[in-house]
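Researcher: Here's my situation. A collaborator sent me these components and asked whether they could plausibly form a single complex. I don't have experimental data yet, so a predicted model of the whole assembly would be a useful starting point for our discussion.
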Amino acid sequence: MKKYNNNLNWRYATKKFDISKNIPEVDLEQLLEAIRLSPSSYGLQPYQVFVIKNPELREKLKSAAWNQPQIIDASHLLVFANLKEIDKVYVDGYLDMIAETRNQTREDLSRLETMLDNTVLKFSSEKKNQWASNQAYIALGNLLSAAANCKIDACPMEGFEAIKFDEILGLKEKGLTTAVIATLGYRSSEDKQQYAIKVRKNKEKLFNRL
Ligand SMILES: Cc1cc2nc3c(=O)[nH]c(=O)nc-3n(C[C@H](O)[C@H](O)[C@H](O)COP(=O)(O)O)c2cc1C
C-alpha cells in the first residue's frame, strides 16, 4: 500500500510530454483493462472510450481543447464518452449479458430488472446524462491510479469543448457525448510541473471521523 501511495505521489497532471516516447502496446492493454474493470452503478458501464493515436485527428481535437499541447504530444489520447440516453434496449442488452456470463435466466434477474426500470430508466434525460458521465469519471480515476502504478504519466482534462469533440468524433450519431479526456505517455524532463510540491488538504480538513 505504501508503494501504491508513493506512486500516487509520483504522478502529477503532466503538462509537457516527451514526444519521442510511446507506450508499449502491452502496457496500454493493461491500462485499458483497468478501465474495463472499473465499477459502475448497477454495472451498466454507460460509456465508451476512444483510444486515439492518429496525429491528424488529434491535431483537430487539440484546437477544440484550448490548444493544450498534451493532446498531440502525449503517446495516446483517451476520450471518455458517455451515453446520453439510457433506454430499455440498452438495459435489456446488459441483462442479457449478465444472464449469458453467469449462466442465468432472465427470470433470475427479474429483481434487478425491476430495480433498473424504477431507477435509471425513470431518470430525466438530464439526470441520465449526468449519471452516465459520473460513471465515466470513475473509470478515469481508475485509469489514473493504474497509470501511476506502472509509472506511466497522464493528464486528466476537462479543458475542451464537448460539442466540438462530439462533432469531430461523430459521437452524436452514436448517442454519445464527451465526458472527460486523458492523455497518456511519459513526462518530458523539461516539464517543470513535475517538481511542484503537491497541494492537498490535510487529513483534518478532508476527513470527518464520526
Ligand atoms: C477532471 C479533471 C480535469 C482536469 N483538466 C485539466 C486540463 O484541462 N488541463 C490540465 O493541464 N490539467 C487538468 N487537470 C489537472 C488538475 O489541475 C490537477 O490534477 C490538480 O491540480 C492536482 O494536481 P496533480 O494532479 O498534478 O497532483 C484536470 C484534473 C481533473 C481531475
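Model: Some features of this prediction you could bring to your collaborator: The chain has two domains: 2-85+130-206, 87-122. The CA atoms of residues 149 and 209 lie 28 Å apart.
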